[in-house]
Structures are given as structure tokens and as C-alpha cells.
Amino acid sequence: MSLLLAVIAGLAAASAFLVDDDLLRRKIVLAPTFTHFLGVLGIWLAGVPVVEPGRILALDAPGLLFLTVSSLVFLTASVALSHSLATQSTGHSRTLAFVFTASPRVFCSCFLFSLSMATVVCAARHFALLWVALEATTLASAPLIFHPAHSRSLEAAWKYVLTCTVGMSLALLGTMFLGVSASAAGDIPFTIDAVRAASPALNVEWLKLAFLFILVGYGTKAGLAPFHMWLPDAYAEAPTIFPMISGALVNCALLAVLRVYSVICVAGGETILFAQNLLVFFGLASIFGATIHILRQEDFKRLLGYSTVEHMGLIVLGVGLGGVGVFGALLHALNHGLAKAMLFIVAGNIAQSHSTRSVDAVRGMWGTLPGNAALWLFGLFAISGAPPFGLFVSELFIVKATFDAQRYILGGLALVFLTIIFVGMATVFVRMCFGEPETPPEDSRSVELPSNLAPAVALCAGLLLLGYYIPGPILRVIDSAAQILQGGG
Hints:
It is built from 19 helices and no strands. Helix 2 (22-46) packs antiparallel against helix 3 (61-89) and helix 5 (127-146) runs antiparallel to helix 6. The radius of gyration is 21 Å and the shape is globular. By secondary structure, it is mainly α.
């Protein structure tokens, strides 16, 4: 099924590039993402399949969880993209200043190809294929950043490609080191299942070196500090569609790290402590780095970029703590993907209506854009981990893991940083929503349409649901994924 979903998205990408009719292109964008989501739902209804050893492409619980996040995010982004295409076809080109200004042909094609490769990443059972698919997501998504076709977007796209290429090169080197470590166990296939089965016989020193390079390499793609320098620029300068789907793509990079971490957990011994310490260090460093930048940020799209760095750090921190922290980290990956997609829908509306990303230039949204203002404030509480939203539950699990491990200083620091981040973000969000607007928004009518707000409302409802109640199937898949990533399953 995963191969079929990847092929459908890939064929749709080719079709979007070849067709000339804008109405048909809108359908091409919507149809495969909707089909992809239905296919993922079908997998959930059928139950997580047992992965047969030797498979190159197959979904297990971690893969299904991250694929679900990707499918939801891409479906939401495709609705926003289709709306933008419709706006362009009516001749209102000004409203596209923060969506795309060049031909939508390349944009739509790269968008769908990114979905295809993200599907392969989630289902890949071979370490080499995992690297190839993740590198393909980088190449496919880079044109999405450049698409406004101005000097700042060119710089952001170049920084993204250059930084992530260096990171992926380090990850490739780490993958080779993992192969050298696996060669100590004899001539075995370089698949996740085979390496996990032979992990007690792996060369420990090469395995440690492999994980270090893979964490730094894939962590660059995931936006972990201090390798996150591409992320704020890309989120600020790219069309709003890119940061929406980037929430799925950074999760894919994290999944690649977790695949190798699961091998280490099976191997056991001192290697686990080595890997956990690295994860905790980079996790806390990412939260701290985000805290510094959020406090002095005047660009609300860039602010959301640093928020992503914070949440990637939280996920890595949870995994490094082990125990209930791994469960919390996986739940947090799901919650964060939904919350960030919701916020970028609203951020795109604000940027479109005011023709700016400056916090100082946006005031009084509650009077001029009441629907977007309400969602913007809901998004503040959701992304900050406040009750009753899902991120509060997942962050609670992660913080609890610090105290379960008796790492009280670590837990205290994390709580202090999260509190500072909430205050910093609340200051920005409240300033934008209240007060007297200096200049009224130029385009308040279209961004307040129910059809424009519906995807954000649906995502907000999902976050509220996950804050009150985690459905049984989701609970079981996350629990199973946590066991697999800690060496069980």
C-alpha cells in the first residue's frame, strides 16, 4: 500500500507539471492528497501490518504514525494551495505575494513529489533507501522556497540546499559507518530488521560514530540547534505552503534518526547511554536556542520557524530520556505537525491581508480579521503547550520523564525555557490581535471566508480532541511505536 501511495503522488507530480489548464491542475493537486489520506485511513482500519523480514518498503507503527502526520499536513496544504490557484485564476495576483508569483507548474509538481518521497521515507526498511528518499525531499522542496523569485527567497533557498546538503553528506557518512559496524556481524542485508537482529554483534565503536554523524546530519534537516540556520529564513521567505509541509518533512528526518536509535537500543550496553546523552544535549540546546531568538523576533513567520526548532528539541529530548518520554515525544510529533500547519494557514492569511510579515505593522486583528484573530490566539495556546490542547499532554509526558529519571535540573531548565517562550510568543500574538490598527488590511474579505478558515478550524478541533482524549487506535500505535524505537517490537 505504501508503494502505491508513493507512486500515485509521483504520477500526480508529473501530471501537474505537464498540464496547462489551471482548473485541471487544481484537481490534480487535491485528488492525490485526498487519495493518499484515504489510503492511510485504510491502513489504520486494517491494523498495523506485521513487517516481514527482508522487505524494502513496509509500514510499521513508527512509519504509520509519521506517515499519518505527513498525509494530514499535505492534505491541509493542498486545500490552501488549491485556493491560491483559484485566486490566481481570477486575476487577483496581489493576493499571491505570499503564495507564489512564478508559474504554478513547478510549484505544484514539487509539492506532490515531496509527498511521494515523504511516503517512501516513512515506509523505507533499507538504510540506503532511507537516505536517498530523504535527500529527494530536500531537492523537491527547495524550489518551493525560491518560488517568490526575489533575492531574499533565492538566498533562503540557497541556504536551505547548502546546509541540508552538508547535513545529508554527514548522514551518508554515518550510514556508511553503520554499514561498517554491521559488517562485524557477517554478510547481512543492510535493512533495519536485519541490522536490528544482528545488533548484539555490531562493532560498538563504529556504531557510536555512526549515530553521532547520523544525528548531526539528519538533525540538520530536522532543524535541531545549532544546525538550524536554514530554517528561520526558509520559513520567512518561502510561500506559506512550504513551512506547512515542512512540519512533515522535519518529522521524516527525525524518523531517520529514530530508526538508527532503535538499533542502538537493541544492541544495548554503553551505546544506549551514549546515544541518550547526545539526544538530551541537542534537545536542550534546541529549546535554549529557540528561547533566545523568540524573545527578540519581529517577523511572525520567522517566529514560527524558531518555534519549530523548539519543538524538534522537545521531541529529541523526550526520546533521549527514554521511558514515558518516548511516548510523549511521538505524541508531540503528531500534535506539533497539526498545530504548526494550523498556525501557518493563519500566518499566510495575515501576511496576505497586510502585505507584510512585520509584527509592528499588524494591529487590531480582533476588529478587522476576527476569524483569523481567534484562530491565531487558539494557535498560541496550542503551540505553547497550554491546556486543553494536545501539546499540553505530550509536553507533560516529556517533562514527567525528566523527573522519572531524577534529572531535576534538566526538568527545571526545560520548564523555565518553555515558560519564557510562552511569554515571548504571547507578547507578539497579543500585540497583533489587539489595539488600534494603524492601517486597515487591504484584503480582509477573502481571508475571512469560511472556506479559507475551515482547514485551520479542523486542525484546531483535532488538537482539542487530543488534549481531552486520545482515541484507542492512536494510543495503541504510539505505544507500539515507542516500544519498537526502544528496542522492542
